[in-house]
Each structure stands twice: as structure tokens, then as C-alpha cells.
Amino acid sequence: MTDGTNPTTQEELTEPLLPQGDDVESIPPEDVCATTDNDDTNNDDTGDGDNTTEFSFQNEVAEMVNLGIPLAVSFFCRMGMASTDSAFVGHIHNGDNSPEVYLAAAVLSDMMVTLCITPPLAFNQIVSALVGQAMGSNNPKMAGIWLQQSMFWIAVTMTPCLVGLFYVQPCLELLGFSHEISEVAGQYAKWNLLWPVPNGLYQCLRFYFQACGFPRPAMYNNLAFLGINTLLNWIFVFGGPIPGWNGFGFIGAAISLSISRTMQGVCYFIYMFLIKEHHKHAWPDAGWSFTHHTRERTWEFLKQSLPNVGTLLFQAVSSQATTVLLGRLGDAAIAASSALSTVTIPWSGTMSATCGMVSGVRVGYHLGRGDGEAARRASWLMIHFITVMCILTSIVFIPLKRQIMMIATDDDEVIDLAVKVVAAMLVGNYLNLLVGNITSVFGGQGRPLIATILSFGLELPTSIGGMAIVILVLHGNLIGVYWWNAIAGGIEAVIVVWLLTRSNWAKCADDTQRRQEADSNEEEEDAATEPESSLERPSDETSSSDEGDSPETPLIERV
Hints:
The protein is an all-alpha fold. Helices cover 69% and strands 0% of the residues.
């Protein structure tokens, strides 16, 4: 469920405060099915493909940990970069504006940047699905073709969308925000022009290599640039170690982020493509070439990616609409909400993105083996993990809430308001994590329509509509807004848990196996008996896909 005051869905956490998702990326049903075939090579505790293998709690936990740790570290670093910028902004005392104004301007600028760059992200959200399917169908060279398609469409569509960043100030003033905050936010947005295209291309590369079985390089790269971004913020915001220079102040955070996100992709490309050449096992023979991109392949790519444009745009608009509504409560409310997001997104966003992806992969893996009961147990295992982690987090957060909030800002007014809503925020976070994880399970089952219906039919009236009533009709405060979001999350949690308990896991397993057969090459019968495949030892697969770059290769059918 979308929670504008403290976003937790993967799309919201993508870039720069979206998750994204980090690194967030939401897994379509095709991705889950395809990835699970490959994922059992990385997590091959039952590599014989026998769907009668007894479910092992210990093995399942081990597989989830092995898959989840690199993803969690990577997601944490990606979202930590955005939180680092906000933390530095919240400590600026240059006499021009208060930290409260800078925090509010930063979150409003991020809102507008998010709305501008979200639609093109649909073209990289599908990469992991197509690459995973190509690897699972024993046709790895098609993976490189899908990557090239994604990078082309990202570059072509993202560039014109950035024009909107020149009009952030008039848009915010039109929405009723003060001239002071709108002007500062407009300046900040213009300094974010440089990173969206390189960052979008980096996402394409990251999803491609993760689906090919190389998740750790992205983790190390993100770790390195989390530290680099912190250093750059210190230098460009406050002057760092340079004597007599006080930095660029507020816009220094945007400059730091632009440099970090741009160089992050450049370094990753150099390492993966030029130094290690990890792409070779899943790359067409002609390399970077338009000859691969036949009309049929291009149309297939667009058919699978264009529907995501509407979905991502709806999620971004509904999320940012709450920021606009919070603006009716004043600058202090926006600043307090921004401070809360700064200290909670790194852990809540990391859990949301990681648990959702791990659930989708493991559920799909078991369903691909035809073992619906194991898939059911894996889904509930992750739900229990989320519950325990949220309890432990609350035990630490509640008694130390003021000290934790001081990480984001040293403005006493903002801290005093933020600590009052910590309890509601923690409850809402848990419920949103629960809902997000279960919707990922639905994706693993091949039932993404459930999440779509919930987004349009439930989130819009309960979350956005309810918040509008609290603020505009009842004239509530920030505390009431956070508690309403927790209530709305509880309503959706009850519904998705009920739907999960009513799932026909045997039918889901049958449907998943039929999809795998439909997506397989006819000549893959021998490979089907060899579950140790593309992800674990990609170099062993190269020789088994002689037809991978042939135009006659069957396109992956839509699920």
C-alpha cells in the first residue's frame, strides 16, 4: 500500500527517494517465473527437480539468506544515498533559510523529480523478467538483446521528461506552496538534471547482471558509492576539508547526488563489461547492433513494458499526492515527515524491497518445481520474519526516537513534532511491509491482477481519499494523518492475508509449470533435466545456446 508520509513500496523507493527500490524494483509475473528457474541454480538445495522433496525449514532459511543479503545491502545503500542528502540538508544553517525550509524544499523537489522520471522507468522494470526468461529457456544470448532494447528506450524517453525539472517552481506555487519554498525547490530540481539518464541505464545493467547470476558486484559498487556520496556531500554542502570554503550549501546536496549516481553507473559498466566481461555468456554475437532488434522483438518488448508506464505513474502520483496534502498542514509538517522518511526509509525500504523480491523468487522457485505446499510455507516464513524484525526495530526505535531523529535534523521544532508520530509510523510501516510482501507473493503465483485491483480499488479511496478527508474536512494534524495511514494499511492487510489463505497453491503450481513449458525452447528437453544452469555457472551455458541470437528464436510468450 502506498504511504506518502513514509513510502515503502519498491516503486516509491527507486530514485531518488523511491525506491525504488533500489535497487526497487517490483517483479512482474514473468520475472518471477523466469527467475525461479534460474534461481534454483543459485539456491540449489533440491536441484534434482523432484517436486516431492520434503520442505526443509533450515534449507529454506539458508537459501533466503544467501539471496537476500546481497540484495538487502544493495537496496540499503541506494536508499541510504538519498537519506544522506536529506540528513546534510537538515543541518544547514547559512542564514539564508532555516533547516525546516531546506528539508521541505528537498522533499518537494524530490516529489517533482520522481513524477518526471517515473514513466520511462517502465522500460527497465521489465529487464529482469525478460533476462530471467531468456536464461531459463536456455537461450541466454536473447538476454543481451533485451538489455539493449531497455537501454535504448530509457535513453530516448527519459531525456524529454527532464524538461519538466525546469518548471518545478511554478508547479509548486500552483499547488499552493509558498514562494520561498517553491523557489528553493526549483533551484534544487535543476541541479538534478544530470543523473536520471545515467542512473536509469545503471538500473538496466544491474537488473541484467543480477538476473544473469552476478548480484554481488552491484552490492559492492553501491557500498562504495554510499561512502563516496557522503564524502561529496561533506565537501559540496559544507566545504569539507578545504580551508576558507563553506561549500555550495543547499544545492551542494544535488551536485553530490548527480556526481555519485552518474559515476556509479560508469564504474559498474567498466568493471562488468570491460574488465570482467561478465556479459559474454549472455550477449549476442554481433554485440551492440540494431540488427538484433527485429520488429517482432521490439514489439514484444514494448508489449511487456508499456503497461508498466501506467502502473508506475499511478503509484508515483498517488504517493506524491499525500505530500501535497501534507503541505496544507504547514512547513513544519512537511519537514517532520521528511525527517521521519530520512531515518526510516533505509531500513523499511530495504526490508520492503528485499523481502518482496526474495518472496517472489522463492515462491516462484517452488511453484516451478510443482511444489505448491513448499511455496506456501516459504511465503509464511517471510511473513513471520517481517513480523519479528518490525518488533525488534520498535524495541530500539521507541526509546531512542529523539536521538534517532537528530540524525535527520537539529531543528527542535521539527524533532518535537516528528517524535509524536513515531508509534503510528512504526505500525503503518509494519502493515505496509506485510501488504507489499504478500503482493509480491501474488506476483510469484502469477496473479499480479490482484495487486492492480488493490491499488486502484482500495488504496486510492482509503489512503489518498481518507487522508484528504482527515486534512481538508476534519482539519486534522500530522499525528492524525499517520494514524489514518496505519488504519488504511490494516484494512488492506486483512484483505491480502485473507486472499493468501484462500490461495489454491496446487493450481498455481500447475499454471507455473505450464508457463515454463510455453516459454521453453523445443530443444531444451535435455537442459530441463539439468537444474544447475544459467545462474550458478553461466560460463557452462554459453555453448548450449547456439540459436540464442537467431531471429527465428521464439519470443517469450506473455503469461
